[in-house]
Design a protein that fits this description.
- By secondary structure, this protein is mainly α.
- It contains twelve helices and no strands.
- It starts with a helix and ends with a helix.
Length: about 260
């Protein structure tokens, strides 16, 4: 483990340079540049708000704001966008760079780290845009924002652990790359993003909390919507699962890193 971390540290400038080049390549011909990173999720918020706010806005207790549902949606989509981007991109990261892996000797784990760094920059820009919108909607953030790094860390750990595990398996079983996006579509609707857990029958609430992302999303909502710290006891489960998935990903990587190059 120490050797792996030391090797990644030696390649830190390669990782940072690759993140920078990816950003420059992505927006080289776009006049709006990085603004596109935040337009898509904010457009998604606007669509859901227009379609569903008339039905759900009155059912958000504790928020004295006419734009309560839009605020609630922004918090949920902010957390989901990071998870979804990291997992989806890690899923195909080794397949997309197969030729590079066969021609150049470098630590393969730098690839998911590059993906993660890029996703974090997207998340930071969307987070700043979300804060600006909250101020415009007369719902300024509170000191509870200090808990956001913890939520980002848990979100990132779970997404990276699952994404890297699926990404390695996808090299050997290509059906994984088709199944995971379908699972993510169901996962989105099984997470309290466009609805609150209080709207669910009590007999089903415990089942929804088995979804590790539910506690993470609710943590974002506690911070940005309700202005208080997240329920720390609810975060124990996703934290443990994030640690387990990261451990599984490292185990799979150690066992399969050489065979991946042969297959690719």
């Amino acid at each position: 483990m120490k050797t792996m971390l030391f090797t990644l540290w030696r390649y830190r400038y390669f990782i940072l340079g690759a993140i920078k080049n990816e950003l420059l390549t992505r927006f080289a011909r776009n006049r709006l540049g990085a603004i596109w990173m935040i337009i898509h999720p904010l457009a998604q918020v606007a669509i859901y708000t227009l379609v569903l706010s008339a039905v759900l806005s009155a059912k958000l207790p504790g928020i004295n704001n006419q734009y309560a549902y839009a605020i609630y949606l922004m918090a949920g989509i902010l957390s989901w966008s990071l998870f979804n981007e990291v997992l989806n991109r890690c899923l195909n990261v080794f397949l997309e760079h197969g030729n590079l892996l066969k021609k150049i000797a470098f630590p393969h784990l730098t690839l998911p780290l590059i993906v993660t760094g890029h996703a974090l920059l997207n998340h930071a820009l969307l987070f700043l845009a979300t804060l600006a919108v909250l101020v415009i909607l007369l719902h300024p953030p509170t000191l509870s924002l200090l808990w956001i790094p913890l939520m980002v860390l848990l979100n990132l750990g779970l997404a990276l652990g699952l994404g890297l595990s699926f990404g390695i398996l996808n090299v050997f079983i290509r059906d994984i790359g088709q199944i995971v996006p379908v699972i993510l579509q169901f996962w989105f609707w099984l997470t309290p993003i466009v609805y609150t857990t209080s709207m669910l029958p009590e007999s089903y609430r415990a089942l929804f909390l088995l979804n590790p992302l539910s506690a993470i999303v609710m943590g974002y909502q506690d911070i940005l919507v309700y202005g208080h710290r997240p329920e720390l006891t609810q975060l124990i489960y996703p934290a443990c699962l994030a640690a387990l998935t990261l451990a599984l990903a490292l185990f799979l990587y150690r066992r399969a890193s050489q065979e991946m190059v042969d297959i690719l």
